[in-house]
Protein backbone atom coordinates (compact mmCIF):
# COMPACT_ATOMS: atom_id res chain seq x y z
CA UNK A 1 0.00 0.00 0.00
CA UNK A 2 0.99 3.61 -0.62
CA UNK A 3 1.67 4.60 2.97
CA UNK A 4 4.45 2.05 3.18
CA UNK A 5 6.39 3.44 0.21
CA UNK A 6 8.62 5.10 2.76
CA UNK A 7 9.11 8.80 3.20
CA UNK A 8 12.39 10.33 2.10
CA UNK A 9 12.38 12.61 5.10
CA UNK A 10 14.43 15.75 5.05
CA UNK A 11 11.47 17.99 5.58
CA UNK A 12 10.28 17.47 2.00
CA UNK A 13 6.70 16.24 1.69
CA UNK A 14 6.59 15.78 -2.12
CA UNK A 15 8.61 16.01 -5.32
CA UNK A 16 5.84 16.85 -7.79
CA UNK A 17 2.43 18.39 -7.12
CA UNK A 18 -0.06 19.41 -9.79
CA UNK A 19 -3.70 20.48 -9.39
CA UNK A 20 -6.49 22.67 -10.81
CA UNK A 21 -6.70 25.15 -7.93
CA UNK A 22 -9.77 25.54 -5.71
CA UNK A 23 -13.36 25.63 -6.98
CA UNK A 24 -15.19 28.92 -6.36
CA UNK A 25 -18.83 29.12 -5.27
CA UNK A 26 -21.34 30.39 -7.87
CA UNK A 27 -21.87 34.14 -8.15
CA UNK A 28 -24.77 35.73 -6.26
CA UNK A 29 -28.13 35.34 -7.98
CA UNK A 30 -30.34 38.44 -7.39
CA UNK A 31 -33.83 37.95 -5.95
CA UNK A 32 -36.77 38.03 -8.37
CA UNK A 33 -38.62 41.37 -8.42
CA UNK A 34 -41.69 40.02 -6.63
CA UNK A 35 -39.66 39.07 -3.52
CA UNK A 36 -39.46 42.12 -1.31
CA UNK A 37 -37.59 43.36 1.75
CA UNK A 38 -39.65 45.68 3.99
CA UNK A 39 -38.40 48.39 6.33
CA UNK A 40 -40.86 49.85 8.79
CA UNK A 41 -43.66 48.28 6.74
CA UNK A 42 -42.52 49.80 3.41
CA UNK A 43 -40.98 47.85 0.50
CA UNK A 44 -37.30 48.75 -0.10
CA UNK A 45 -35.30 47.68 -3.16
CA UNK A 46 -31.80 46.96 -1.84
CA UNK A 47 -28.55 47.39 -3.75
CA UNK A 48 -27.04 44.06 -4.86
CA UNK A 49 -24.33 43.91 -2.20
CA UNK A 50 -26.78 44.72 0.62
CA UNK A 51 -29.39 42.34 -0.77
CA UNK A 52 -26.96 39.41 -0.80
CA UNK A 53 -26.10 39.92 2.87
CA UNK A 54 -29.79 40.31 3.72
CA UNK A 55 -30.49 36.88 2.19
CA UNK A 56 -27.92 35.30 4.52
CA UNK A 57 -29.90 36.54 7.53
CA UNK A 58 -33.29 35.76 5.96
CA UNK A 59 -32.28 32.15 5.38
CA UNK A 60 -31.51 31.80 9.09
CA UNK A 61 -34.74 33.25 10.49
CA UNK A 62 -35.91 29.84 11.73
CA UNK A 63 -32.59 29.30 13.46
CA UNK A 64 -31.90 29.94 17.14
CA UNK A 65 -28.88 32.09 16.18
CA UNK A 66 -31.02 34.95 14.87
CA UNK A 67 -32.69 35.27 18.30
CA UNK A 68 -29.34 36.01 20.02
CA UNK A 69 -28.55 39.65 20.57
CA UNK A 70 -24.82 39.39 19.81
CA UNK A 71 -25.63 37.64 16.51
CA UNK A 72 -28.10 40.39 15.64
CA UNK A 73 -25.72 43.22 16.57
CA UNK A 74 -22.73 41.77 14.70
CA UNK A 75 -24.85 41.09 11.63
CA UNK A 76 -26.39 44.56 11.59
CA UNK A 77 -23.02 46.30 11.97
CA UNK A 78 -21.45 44.30 9.13
CA UNK A 79 -24.54 44.56 6.93
CA UNK A 80 -24.56 48.35 7.21
CA UNK A 81 -20.99 48.41 5.93
CA UNK A 82 -22.17 46.74 2.71
CA UNK A 83 -25.01 49.26 2.19
CA UNK A 84 -25.01 52.41 0.06
CA UNK A 85 -25.04 55.79 1.80
CA UNK A 86 -28.77 56.17 1.07
CA UNK A 87 -29.56 52.71 2.49
CA UNK A 88 -27.61 53.52 5.63
CA UNK A 89 -29.62 56.73 6.01
CA UNK A 90 -32.87 54.80 5.76
CA UNK A 91 -32.13 51.47 7.55
CA UNK A 92 -31.21 52.31 11.14
CA UNK A 93 -32.77 49.52 13.23
CA UNK A 94 -32.80 45.78 12.81
CA UNK A 95 -36.12 45.54 14.67
CA UNK A 96 -37.84 47.42 11.83
CA UNK A 97 -36.47 45.06 9.15
CA UNK A 98 -38.82 42.45 7.76
CA UNK A 99 -37.08 39.53 6.03
CA UNK A 100 -40.08 37.17 6.06
CA UNK A 101 -40.83 37.36 2.33
CA UNK A 102 -37.22 36.53 1.47
CA UNK A 103 -37.26 33.71 4.01
CA UNK A 104 -40.44 32.29 2.46
CA UNK A 105 -38.91 32.46 -1.02
CA UNK A 106 -35.93 30.33 0.03
CA UNK A 107 -38.15 27.85 1.87
CA UNK A 108 -40.16 27.41 -1.33
CA UNK A 109 -36.95 26.95 -3.31
CA UNK A 110 -35.77 24.22 -0.97
CA UNK A 111 -39.19 22.52 -1.14
CA UNK A 112 -38.90 22.59 -4.94
CA UNK A 113 -35.51 20.98 -4.69
CA UNK A 114 -36.88 18.23 -2.44
CA UNK A 115 -39.75 17.63 -4.90
CA UNK A 116 -37.40 17.09 -7.86
CA UNK A 117 -37.81 13.87 -9.84
CA UNK A 118 -35.20 11.12 -9.63
CA UNK A 119 -34.01 12.06 -13.13
CA UNK A 120 -33.56 15.74 -12.23
CA UNK A 121 -31.62 14.79 -9.11
CA UNK A 122 -29.45 12.46 -11.18
CA UNK A 123 -28.56 15.31 -13.58
CA UNK A 124 -27.46 17.48 -10.63
CA UNK A 125 -25.46 14.62 -9.18
CA UNK A 126 -23.66 14.07 -12.46
CA UNK A 127 -22.78 17.77 -12.76
CA UNK A 128 -21.40 17.60 -9.23
CA UNK A 129 -19.37 14.49 -9.98
CA UNK A 130 -17.89 16.20 -13.03
CA UNK A 131 -16.66 19.06 -10.84
CA UNK A 132 -15.22 16.61 -8.30
CA UNK A 133 -13.42 14.74 -11.08
CA UNK A 134 -11.92 18.00 -12.33
CA UNK A 135 -11.12 19.83 -9.09
CA UNK A 136 -11.21 17.11 -6.44
CA UNK A 137 -7.97 15.33 -7.38
CA UNK A 138 -4.31 16.22 -7.70
CA UNK A 139 -1.19 14.50 -8.97
CA UNK A 140 1.23 13.98 -6.10
CA UNK A 141 4.52 12.20 -6.90
CA UNK A 142 2.81 10.48 -9.79
CA UNK A 143 -0.14 9.23 -7.69
CA UNK A 144 -3.66 10.54 -8.24
CA UNK A 145 -4.67 11.68 -4.76
CA UNK A 146 -8.04 12.89 -3.51
CA UNK A 147 -8.26 16.48 -2.20
CA UNK A 148 -10.22 17.09 1.01
CA UNK A 149 -11.92 20.49 0.81
CA UNK A 150 -11.36 21.71 -2.75
CA UNK A 151 -14.21 24.25 -2.61
CA UNK A 152 -13.70 27.82 -1.42
CA UNK A 153 -16.23 28.51 1.34
CA UNK A 154 -19.16 30.59 0.11
CA UNK A 155 -19.89 33.91 1.84
CA UNK A 156 -22.36 33.84 4.74
CA UNK A 157 -22.75 34.72 8.41
CA UNK A 158 -20.22 33.41 10.91
CA UNK A 159 -21.74 31.03 13.45
CA UNK A 160 -18.92 29.84 15.67
CA UNK A 161 -19.42 27.28 18.40
CA UNK A 162 -20.81 27.89 21.85
CA UNK A 163 -21.38 31.55 22.68
CA UNK A 164 -18.82 32.90 20.23
CA UNK A 165 -18.45 36.69 20.52
CA UNK A 166 -18.14 37.10 16.72
CA UNK A 167 -21.32 35.21 15.80
CA UNK A 168 -23.33 36.95 13.07
CA UNK A 169 -20.37 38.71 11.46
CA UNK A 170 -20.13 38.63 7.67
CA UNK A 171 -17.85 36.00 6.13
CA UNK A 172 -16.92 37.76 2.91
CA UNK A 173 -16.64 36.25 -0.54
CA UNK A 174 -13.06 35.12 -1.16
CA UNK A 175 -11.51 36.43 -4.39
CA UNK A 176 -8.70 34.71 -6.36
CA UNK A 177 -6.56 37.80 -5.58
CA UNK A 178 -6.45 36.62 -1.93
CA UNK A 179 -5.42 33.04 -2.69
CA UNK A 180 -1.89 31.62 -2.68
CA UNK A 181 -1.38 28.55 -4.88
CA UNK A 182 1.22 25.90 -3.99
CA UNK A 183 2.36 23.44 -6.69
CA UNK A 184 5.59 22.15 -8.19
CA UNK A 185 7.79 24.14 -10.58
CA UNK A 186 7.18 23.28 -14.20
CA UNK A 187 3.74 21.74 -13.53
CA UNK A 188 0.58 22.97 -15.24
CA UNK A 189 -0.12 25.91 -12.96
CA UNK A 190 -3.83 26.36 -12.10
CA UNK A 191 -5.59 29.05 -14.12
CA UNK A 192 -7.39 31.77 -12.13
CA UNK A 193 -11.04 32.48 -13.05
CA UNK A 194 -11.53 34.82 -16.01
CA UNK A 195 -10.51 38.43 -15.36
CA UNK A 196 -8.74 37.50 -12.09
CA UNK A 197 -5.27 36.54 -10.94
CA UNK A 198 -3.88 34.65 -7.93
CA UNK A 199 -2.30 36.50 -5.03
CA UNK A 200 0.82 34.47 -5.73
CA UNK A 201 2.03 31.08 -6.90
CA UNK A 202 4.71 29.33 -4.85
CA UNK A 203 6.56 26.02 -4.96
CA UNK A 204 7.09 24.97 -1.35
CA UNK A 205 7.49 21.22 -0.97
CA UNK A 206 7.94 21.34 2.81
CA UNK A 207 4.18 21.84 3.24
CA UNK A 208 1.31 19.66 2.03
CA UNK A 209 -1.35 22.29 1.29
CA UNK A 210 -2.41 23.18 -2.26
CA UNK A 211 -3.93 26.62 -1.72
CA UNK A 212 -4.38 29.03 1.18
CA UNK A 213 -6.06 32.30 2.11
CA UNK A 214 -7.01 34.28 5.21
CA UNK A 215 -10.66 34.42 6.27
CA UNK A 216 -11.83 37.83 7.41
CA UNK A 217 -13.78 37.08 10.61
CA UNK A 218 -11.05 35.68 12.84
CA UNK A 219 -8.08 36.27 10.58
CA UNK A 220 -7.32 32.54 10.43
CA UNK A 221 -5.47 30.87 7.58
CA UNK A 222 -7.58 28.43 5.56
CA UNK A 223 -5.93 25.64 3.58
CA UNK A 224 -6.93 23.28 0.81
CA UNK A 225 -5.52 19.96 2.03
CA UNK A 226 -5.36 16.38 0.84
CA UNK A 227 -8.19 14.04 1.74
CA UNK A 228 -7.65 12.03 4.97
CA UNK A 229 -7.48 8.84 2.88
CA UNK A 230 -4.38 10.04 1.03
CA UNK A 231 -0.96 8.50 1.56
CA UNK A 232 0.54 11.52 3.32
CA UNK A 233 -2.33 11.86 5.79
CA UNK A 234 -2.49 8.12 6.50
CA UNK A 235 1.21 8.08 7.26
CA UNK A 236 0.90 11.03 9.63
CA UNK A 237 -2.06 9.46 11.41
CA UNK A 238 -0.22 6.18 11.87
CA UNK A 239 2.83 7.96 13.29
CA UNK A 240 0.64 9.87 15.73
CA UNK A 241 -0.66 6.63 17.27
CA UNK A 242 2.79 5.04 17.27
CA UNK A 243 4.07 7.96 19.38
CA UNK A 244 1.13 7.45 21.76
CA UNK A 245 2.00 3.75 22.05
CA UNK A 246 5.60 4.67 22.84
CA UNK A 247 4.29 6.80 25.70
CA UNK A 248 2.73 3.65 27.14
CA UNK A 249 6.23 2.29 27.79
CA UNK A 250 7.45 5.55 29.33
CA UNK A 251 4.40 6.74 31.19
CA UNK A 252 5.23 5.22 34.59
CA UNK A 253 8.61 6.98 34.64
CA UNK A 254 7.00 10.27 33.62
CA UNK A 255 4.34 9.90 36.31
CA UNK A 256 6.97 9.23 38.96
CA UNK A 257 8.83 12.31 37.83
CA UNK A 258 5.88 14.70 37.93
CA UNK A 259 4.89 13.39 41.37
CA UNK A 260 8.41 14.15 42.59
CA UNK A 261 8.01 17.64 41.12
CA UNK A 262 5.17 18.31 43.58
CA UNK A 263 7.70 18.68 46.38
CA UNK A 264 10.38 20.50 44.38
CA UNK A 265 11.89 23.67 45.92
CA UNK A 266 11.22 25.65 42.77
CA UNK A 267 7.69 26.97 42.24
CA UNK A 268 7.96 26.67 38.45
CA UNK A 269 8.75 22.95 38.66
CA UNK A 270 5.87 22.36 41.10
CA UNK A 271 3.45 24.09 38.76
CA UNK A 272 4.71 21.98 35.89
CA UNK A 273 4.18 18.83 37.96
CA UNK A 274 0.58 19.70 38.86
CA UNK A 275 -0.29 20.84 35.32
CA UNK A 276 1.01 17.54 33.91
CA UNK A 277 -1.00 15.62 36.50
CA UNK A 278 -4.17 17.38 35.26
CA UNK A 279 -3.27 16.77 31.61
CA UNK A 280 -2.60 13.10 32.31
CA UNK A 281 -5.38 12.35 34.79
CA UNK A 282 -8.17 14.51 33.36
CA UNK A 283 -7.14 14.59 29.68
CA UNK A 284 -7.26 18.42 29.76
CA UNK A 285 -5.99 20.22 26.68
CA UNK A 286 -2.71 22.05 27.24
CA UNK A 287 -4.23 25.48 26.53
CA UNK A 288 -2.17 27.54 24.15
CA UNK A 289 -1.31 31.18 24.54
CA UNK A 290 -3.81 33.17 22.51
CA UNK A 291 -3.40 36.54 20.88
CA UNK A 292 -5.05 39.18 23.03
CA UNK A 293 -7.60 39.89 20.29
CA UNK A 294 -11.33 39.66 20.76
CA UNK A 295 -11.60 35.89 20.30
CA UNK A 296 -13.71 33.85 22.70
CA UNK A 297 -12.34 33.61 26.24
CA UNK A 298 -11.52 29.91 26.33
CA UNK A 299 -8.76 28.22 28.32
CA UNK A 300 -6.89 24.96 28.69
CA UNK A 301 -4.72 23.60 31.48
CA UNK A 302 -1.82 26.08 31.36
CA UNK A 303 -4.09 29.08 30.92
CA UNK A 304 -6.46 28.24 33.82
CA UNK A 305 -7.18 31.19 36.07
CA UNK A 306 -7.79 31.17 39.82
CA UNK A 307 -11.52 31.74 39.22
CA UNK A 308 -11.78 28.47 37.26
CA UNK A 309 -11.20 26.18 40.22
CA UNK A 310 -12.67 25.87 43.69
CA UNK A 311 -11.01 23.82 46.43
CA UNK A 312 -13.06 21.77 48.91
CA UNK A 313 -11.19 20.24 51.86
CA UNK A 314 -14.11 17.81 51.93
CA UNK A 315 -17.17 17.41 49.72
CA UNK A 316 -19.76 14.65 49.46
CA UNK A 317 -17.77 12.44 51.82
CA UNK A 318 -14.53 12.70 49.84
CA UNK A 319 -11.53 14.76 50.86
CA UNK A 320 -9.34 17.04 48.69
CA UNK A 321 -11.96 17.81 46.05
CA UNK A 322 -11.22 20.20 43.18
CA UNK A 323 -14.16 21.70 41.30
CA UNK A 324 -13.35 22.81 37.73
CA UNK A 325 -15.59 25.19 35.80
CA UNK A 326 -14.31 26.88 32.64
CA UNK A 327 -14.94 27.24 28.91
CA UNK A 328 -12.63 25.01 26.88
CA UNK A 329 -12.03 24.78 23.14
CA UNK A 330 -15.03 25.81 20.99
CA UNK A 331 -16.55 27.45 24.09
CA UNK A 332 -17.67 24.09 25.46
CA UNK A 333 -18.08 24.24 29.23
CA UNK A 334 -15.89 21.89 31.26
CA UNK A 335 -17.41 21.14 34.64
CA UNK A 336 -15.96 18.43 36.83
CA UNK A 337 -15.48 17.62 40.50
CA UNK A 338 -12.49 15.40 41.17
CA UNK A 339 -10.69 14.11 44.23
CA UNK A 340 -6.95 14.78 43.97
CA UNK A 341 -3.97 13.65 46.03
CA UNK A 342 -3.24 15.60 49.18
CA UNK A 343 -0.01 17.03 47.83
CA UNK A 344 -1.70 18.36 44.71
CA UNK A 345 -4.38 19.95 46.87
CA UNK A 346 -1.77 21.64 49.06
CA UNK A 347 0.09 22.92 46.01
CA UNK A 348 -3.06 24.35 44.45
CA UNK A 349 -3.70 26.26 47.67
CA UNK A 350 -0.17 27.60 47.43
CA UNK A 351 -0.57 28.60 43.74
CA UNK A 352 -3.75 30.53 44.62
CA UNK A 353 -2.30 32.45 47.56
CA UNK A 354 -2.49 36.25 47.28
CA UNK A 355 -3.94 36.11 43.80
CA UNK A 356 -7.05 37.71 42.32
CA UNK A 357 -9.69 35.59 40.58
CA UNK A 358 -8.50 36.70 37.14
CA UNK A 359 -4.84 35.82 37.80
CA UNK A 360 -3.25 32.78 36.20
CA UNK A 361 -3.23 29.64 38.33
CA UNK A 362 0.00 28.43 36.72
CA UNK A 363 1.68 31.83 36.38
CA UNK A 364 5.24 30.49 35.99
CA UNK A 365 4.69 28.12 33.05
CA UNK A 366 3.21 28.00 29.56
CA UNK A 367 2.52 25.31 26.97
CA UNK A 368 5.78 25.83 25.09
CA UNK A 369 7.80 25.29 28.26
CA UNK A 370 5.71 22.24 29.17
CA UNK A 371 6.14 20.63 25.76
CA UNK A 372 9.88 21.32 25.73
CA UNK A 373 10.15 19.47 29.02
CA UNK A 374 8.05 16.55 27.75
CA UNK A 375 10.14 16.28 24.60
CA UNK A 376 13.18 15.73 26.81
CA UNK A 377 11.45 12.83 28.56
CA UNK A 378 10.60 11.25 25.22
CA UNK A 379 11.21 12.53 21.65
CA UNK A 380 7.98 13.63 19.97
CA UNK A 381 6.06 13.83 23.24
CA UNK A 382 3.72 16.81 23.70
CA UNK A 383 0.75 17.42 25.98
CA UNK A 384 -1.56 16.44 23.11
CA UNK A 385 -0.08 12.92 22.99
CA UNK A 386 -1.41 12.32 26.53
CA UNK A 387 -4.94 12.91 25.28
CA UNK A 388 -4.50 10.41 22.44
CA UNK A 389 -2.80 7.93 24.77
CA UNK A 390 -5.41 8.15 27.53
CA UNK A 391 -8.30 8.03 25.05
CA UNK A 392 -6.96 4.97 23.24
CA UNK A 393 -6.02 3.21 26.49
CA UNK A 394 -9.53 3.84 27.85
CA UNK A 395 -11.16 2.42 24.71
CA UNK A 396 -8.97 -0.69 24.77
CA UNK A 397 -9.61 -1.34 28.48
CA UNK A 398 -13.36 -0.76 28.19
CA UNK A 399 -13.70 -3.00 25.14
CA UNK A 400 -11.78 -5.79 26.86
CA UNK A 401 -14.01 -5.40 29.89
CA UNK A 402 -17.40 -5.02 28.19
CA UNK A 403 -17.33 -7.54 25.32
CA UNK A 404 -17.77 -11.30 25.47
CA UNK A 405 -17.88 -13.71 22.53
CA UNK A 406 -21.40 -14.97 23.34
CA UNK A 407 -23.08 -11.56 22.89
CA UNK A 408 -25.46 -10.82 20.03
CA UNK A 409 -24.32 -8.31 17.41
CA UNK A 410 -26.57 -5.60 18.94
CA UNK A 411 -25.11 -6.20 22.40
CA UNK A 412 -21.58 -6.00 21.03
CA UNK A 413 -22.38 -2.69 19.33
CA UNK A 414 -23.91 -1.28 22.53
CA UNK A 415 -20.71 -2.29 24.34
CA UNK A 416 -18.60 -0.61 21.69
CA UNK A 417 -20.59 2.62 21.94
CA UNK A 418 -20.37 2.49 25.73
CA UNK A 419 -16.60 2.18 25.49
CA UNK A 420 -16.52 5.05 23.00
CA UNK A 421 -18.74 7.09 25.35
CA UNK A 422 -16.31 6.59 28.23
CA UNK A 423 -13.67 8.20 26.01
CA UNK A 424 -15.92 11.06 24.91
CA UNK A 425 -16.74 11.82 28.55
CA UNK A 426 -13.04 11.74 29.47
CA UNK A 427 -12.31 14.19 26.63
CA UNK A 428 -15.42 16.31 27.41
CA UNK A 429 -16.82 15.96 23.88
CA UNK A 430 -20.36 17.21 24.32
CA UNK A 431 -23.13 18.14 21.97
CA UNK A 432 -26.57 19.67 22.29
CA UNK A 433 -29.28 17.00 22.20
CA UNK A 434 -30.15 16.50 18.52
CA UNK A 435 -33.24 18.44 17.39
CA UNK A 436 -34.83 15.19 16.19
CA UNK A 437 -34.09 13.31 19.41
CA UNK A 438 -37.62 13.22 20.83
CA UNK A 439 -39.06 12.26 17.48
CA UNK A 440 -36.71 9.37 16.79
CA UNK A 441 -37.17 8.06 20.33
CA UNK A 442 -40.93 8.21 19.81
CA UNK A 443 -40.58 6.23 16.57
CA UNK A 444 -38.72 3.48 18.41
CA UNK A 445 -41.29 3.55 21.19
CA UNK A 446 -44.08 3.16 18.62
CA UNK A 447 -42.33 0.14 17.15
CA UNK A 448 -42.10 -1.40 20.63
CA UNK A 449 -45.79 -0.74 21.25
CA UNK A 450 -46.54 -2.27 17.86
CA UNK A 451 -45.06 -5.59 18.95
CA UNK A 452 -48.06 -6.89 20.84
CA UNK A 453 -47.61 -10.56 21.64
CA UNK A 454 -50.94 -12.10 22.51
CA UNK A 455 -52.29 -15.06 20.57
CA UNK A 456 -49.14 -15.68 18.54
CA UNK A 457 -47.50 -19.06 17.97
CA UNK A 458 -44.36 -19.84 19.92
CA UNK A 459 -41.92 -19.35 17.04
CA UNK A 460 -43.45 -15.98 16.19
CA UNK A 461 -43.31 -14.90 19.84
CA UNK A 462 -39.62 -15.83 19.92
CA UNK A 463 -38.93 -13.77 16.83
CA UNK A 464 -40.84 -10.80 18.25
CA UNK A 465 -38.98 -11.07 21.56
CA UNK A 466 -35.71 -10.79 19.67
CA UNK A 467 -36.97 -7.74 17.78
CA UNK A 468 -38.06 -6.20 21.05
CA UNK A 469 -34.66 -6.78 22.61
CA UNK A 470 -33.01 -5.16 19.57
CA UNK A 471 -35.24 -2.10 19.84
CA UNK A 472 -34.64 -1.78 23.57
CA UNK A 473 -30.87 -1.92 23.04
CA UNK A 474 -31.17 0.79 20.36
CA UNK A 475 -33.18 2.97 22.72
CA UNK A 476 -30.72 2.54 25.57
CA UNK A 477 -27.89 3.44 23.23
CA UNK A 478 -29.62 6.54 21.92
CA UNK A 479 -30.64 7.76 25.36
CA UNK A 480 -27.10 7.38 26.74
CA UNK A 481 -25.77 9.19 23.69
CA UNK A 482 -28.07 12.17 23.89
CA UNK A 483 -25.59 14.88 24.85
CA UNK A 484 -22.31 13.18 23.99
CA UNK A 485 -20.45 13.55 20.69
CA UNK A 486 -18.73 10.31 19.74
CA UNK A 487 -17.37 11.40 16.38
CA UNK A 488 -14.55 13.67 17.56
CA UNK A 489 -12.73 11.01 19.56
CA UNK A 490 -13.40 8.34 16.94
CA UNK A 491 -11.68 10.42 14.25
CA UNK A 492 -8.93 12.12 16.22
CA UNK A 493 -8.00 10.36 19.45
CA UNK A 494 -8.65 6.64 19.05
CA UNK A 495 -6.14 4.37 17.36
CA UNK A 496 -8.29 2.79 14.62
CA UNK A 497 -6.39 -0.47 14.98
CA UNK A 498 -8.11 -1.03 18.34
CA UNK A 499 -11.52 -0.98 16.64
CA UNK A 500 -10.44 -2.99 13.59
CA UNK A 501 -8.92 -5.72 15.79
CA UNK A 502 -12.04 -5.78 17.96
CA UNK A 503 -14.25 -6.18 14.87
CA UNK A 504 -12.11 -9.05 13.57
CA UNK A 505 -11.97 -10.76 16.94
CA UNK A 506 -15.72 -10.58 17.59
CA UNK A 507 -16.96 -10.97 13.98
CA UNK A 508 -18.47 -7.49 13.80
CA UNK A 509 -18.60 -6.03 10.27
CA UNK A 510 -16.28 -3.00 10.15
CA UNK A 511 -18.99 -0.91 8.48
CA UNK A 512 -21.01 -1.14 11.72
CA UNK A 513 -18.26 0.95 13.38
CA UNK A 514 -16.85 3.07 10.57
CA UNK A 515 -18.82 4.68 7.74
CA UNK A 516 -17.40 4.99 4.22
CA UNK A 517 -15.49 8.23 4.88
CA UNK A 518 -14.01 6.81 8.07
CA UNK A 519 -13.04 3.55 6.34
CA UNK A 520 -11.18 5.60 3.73
CA UNK A 521 -9.40 7.63 6.38
CA UNK A 522 -8.38 4.50 8.28
CA UNK A 523 -7.56 2.36 5.24
CA UNK A 524 -4.02 2.01 6.60
CA UNK A 525 -5.31 0.42 9.82
CA UNK A 526 -7.85 -1.86 8.12
CA UNK A 527 -5.03 -3.01 5.84
CA UNK A 528 -2.47 -3.89 8.52
CA UNK A 529 -4.33 -5.02 11.66
CA UNK A 530 -4.70 -8.58 12.95
CA UNK A 531 -7.32 -9.53 15.53
CA UNK A 532 -4.78 -9.83 18.35
CA UNK A 533 -3.64 -6.19 18.19
CA UNK A 534 -3.72 -4.43 21.57
CA UNK A 535 -2.91 -0.73 21.91
TrEMBL record:
Keyword Coiled coil: yes
Sequence ranges assigned to domain DNA topoisomerase I eukaryotic-type in this UniProt record: 157-507
Coiled-coil parts of chain: 107-134, 454-481
One Gene Ontology CC term in the entry: chromosome
Main location: nucleus
Domain of life from the UniProt record: Eukaryota
Enzyme Commission number(s) from the entry: 5.6.2.1
Role, per record: Releases the supercoiling and torsional tension of DNA introduced during the DNA replication and transcription by transiently cleaving and rejoining one strand of the DNA duplex. Introduces a single-strand break via transesterification at the specific target site 5'-[CT]CCTTp site in duplex DNA. The scissile phosphodiester is attacked by the catalytic tyrosine of the enzyme, resulting in the formation of a DNA-(3'-phosphotyrosyl)-enzyme intermediate and the expulsion of a 5'-OH DNA strand. The free DNA strand then undergoes passage around the unbroken strand thus removing DNA supercoils.
Protein's name according to its UniProt entry: DNA topoisomerase I
Amino acid sequence: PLWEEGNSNNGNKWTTLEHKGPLFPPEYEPLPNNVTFFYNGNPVKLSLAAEEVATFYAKMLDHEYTTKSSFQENFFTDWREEMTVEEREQIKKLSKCDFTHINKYFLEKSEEKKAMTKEQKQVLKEENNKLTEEYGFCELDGHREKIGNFRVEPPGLFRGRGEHPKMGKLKKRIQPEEITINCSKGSNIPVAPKGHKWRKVQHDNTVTWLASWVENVQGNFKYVMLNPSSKLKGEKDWQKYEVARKLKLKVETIRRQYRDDWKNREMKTRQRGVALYFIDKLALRAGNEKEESETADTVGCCSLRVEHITLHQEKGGQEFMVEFDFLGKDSIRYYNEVPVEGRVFKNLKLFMENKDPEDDLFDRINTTYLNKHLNQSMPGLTAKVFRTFNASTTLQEQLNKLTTADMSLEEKLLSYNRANRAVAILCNHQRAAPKTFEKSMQNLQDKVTGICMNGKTESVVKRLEEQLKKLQLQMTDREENKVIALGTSKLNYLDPRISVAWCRKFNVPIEKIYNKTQRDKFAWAIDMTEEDFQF
